């Protein structure tokens, strides 16, 4: 395929980009699907060519940890979808977060982090960064005054998720960017829950966007991977340092699977979101549900960002049961179809208990500050028939009701 094959990438609609953006293979057999370059290393035509490639004087592949045609196609597609110049694919979502943040901090630096993020991200910033002399402050990034007070001369980056895992707190990216715009501080946004189809942080000031590609981007529950999107210089820095030398690079096969999954991202997200709405309507009518956290709810703070920052509410819902942790566990243990498993974005509906699972790295104090109670449950709504998802929730809630009536 000629070098000008991607000139229209930025003019296509997202539903077209997820299928075609970045495709630049020239298969001698005319294969429609991008070839999988399942190789660890690449041959040089001469010793001189090998020398030139290692010196950066000639383009070309050397070793799949440093670059691979299948991986490069995924990176081009994701960069196009997020509106950036470049991207880097990684072995896991946490590999993406670690590589993207560690590339730009040194011992003695300071970072500011949203007080509501994924548990392992919290552990990375609160424990690993501290071990290497990087201080992290976890604050409510919607409080502009607090953000201004928290910034220091040595602050190097601000990191946030929106909507946040697990209770769907949203952050106004544009307002955060406005506070730090005149300073040498990178704004890094985890866009996993929204995908680039429903939110593009770059439009609101994000310097770098990260994804757990394990989730909606792949969509089939058979890959763990991550994506970093940014300008060409930042991605080059990441690829040449923390990604190359710490080695969290993606396998070509996993990159190929994500390329396959991306082709159906648009239609999958439509079904995910429709089902999530139906589940929310069911939960909101139950008296045994104490509180629901869902960006699609009329009273959720996300409504102020709809049409501005977010084009949809996503497919993840968190809710608190009336009662205690024992009742929450009883409910989870009595589901039949819905899988008790962490992660999200799969065809299957997944449900979990954040306080003891994904957010167990939080201290009790940090969980309380983030609003992660012992009865909080997170459901990632899948692609099954909405009525079947609801029926399973209903029978498990009914089992709880009967059990607690008998024990009263």
TrEMBL record:
It comes from the Bacteria. Keywords: Lyase, Pyridoxal phosphate. InterPro entries: Cys/Met-Metab_PyrdxlP-dep_enz, Cys_met_metab_PP, PyrdxlP-dep_Trfase, PyrdxlP-dep_Trfase_major, PyrdxlP-dep_Trfase_small. The modification N6-(pyridoxal phosphate)lysine is found at residue 215. Its cofactor is pyridoxal 5'-phosphate. One of its GO terms (cellular component) is cytoplasm. GO terms for biological process: methionine biosynthetic process; transsulfuration. Pfam families: Cys_Met_Meta_PP. GO terms for molecular function: methionine gamma-lyase activity; pyridoxal phosphate binding. Transmembrane segments: none annotated. Its EC number is 4.4.1.11. The keyword Lyase applies. Belongs to the trans-sulfuration enzymes family. This is Methionine gamma-lyase. It comes from Idiomarina ramblicola. The lineage of its organism: Bacteria, Pseudomonadati, Pseudomonadota, Gammaproteobacteria, Alteromonadales.
């Amino acid at each position: 395929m000629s070098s000008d094959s991607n000139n229209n990438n930025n003019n296509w609609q997202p539903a077209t980009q997820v299928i075609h953006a970045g495709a630049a293979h020239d298969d001698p057999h005319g294969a429609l699907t991008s070839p999988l370059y399942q190789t660890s290393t690449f041959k040089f035509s001469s010793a001189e060519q090998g020398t030139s490639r290692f010196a950066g004087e000639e383009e070309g592949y050397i070793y799949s940890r440093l670059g691979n045609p299948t991986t490069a196609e995924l990176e081009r597609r994701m960069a196009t979808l997020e509106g950036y110049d470049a991207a880097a694919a990684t072995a896991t979502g946490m590999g993406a977060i670690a590589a993207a943040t560690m590339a730009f901090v040194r011992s003695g630096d300071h970072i500011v982090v949203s007080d509501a993020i994924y548990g392992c991200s919290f552990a990375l910033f609160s424990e690993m960064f501290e071990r290497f002399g990087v201080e992290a402050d976890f604050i409510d990034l919607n409080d502009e005054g607090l953000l201004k007070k928290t910034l220091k001369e040595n602050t190097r980056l601000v990191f946030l998720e929106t909507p946040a895992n697990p209770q769907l707190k949203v952050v106004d990216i544009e307002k955060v960017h406005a506070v730090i715009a005149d300073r040498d501080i990178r704004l890094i946004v985890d866009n996993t829950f929204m995908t680039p189809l429903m939110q593009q942080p770059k439009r609101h000031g994000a310097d770098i966007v990260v994804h757990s590609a394990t989730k909606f981007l792949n969509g089939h529950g058979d890959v763990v991977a991550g994506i970093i999107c940014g300008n060409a210089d930042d991605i080059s820095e990441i690829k040449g340092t923390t990604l190359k030398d710490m080695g969290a690079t993606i396998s070509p096969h996993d990159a190929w699977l994500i390329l396959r999954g991306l082709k159906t991202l648009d239609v999958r997200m439509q079904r995910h979101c429709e089902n999530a709405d139906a589940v929310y309507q069911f939960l909101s009518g139950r008296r045994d549900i104490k509180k629901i956290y869902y960006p699609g709810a009329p009273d959720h703070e996300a409504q102020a960002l709809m049409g501005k920052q977010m084009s949809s509410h996503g497919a993840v819902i968190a809710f608190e049961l009336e009662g205690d942790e024992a009742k929450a566990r009883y409910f989870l243990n009595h589901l039949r179809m819905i899988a008790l498993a962490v992660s999200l974005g799969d065809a299957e509906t997944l449900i979990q208990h954040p306080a003891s699972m994904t957010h167990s790295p939080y201290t009790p104090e940090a969980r309380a500050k983030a609003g992660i109670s012992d009865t909080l449950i997170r459901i990632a709504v899948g692609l099954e028939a909405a009525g079947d998802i609801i029926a399973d929730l209903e029978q498990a809630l009914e089992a709880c009701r009967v059990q607690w009536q008998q024990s009263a």
